[in-house]
Here is the input.
Amino acid sequence: MAKTLCDWSRKKRLKKWDKYLRRVLPAHFVCRKCGRAGSDRKYLCRPESVTPPSSS
Here is the structure.
């Protein structure tokens, strides 16, 4: 199995959809390399913390 979500292929994401969603939601980090989002920095290869946009 791939170590990070960045390495998961489309086919693998669809096959293991429930497992994928548990790692993605709620997204607190985004990968600076590929743009994928994750709930924990350990799921991404180049994670960066994100903050939701403020509502105005």
Q: What stands out?
A: The beta strands are 29-31, 37-38, 47-49.
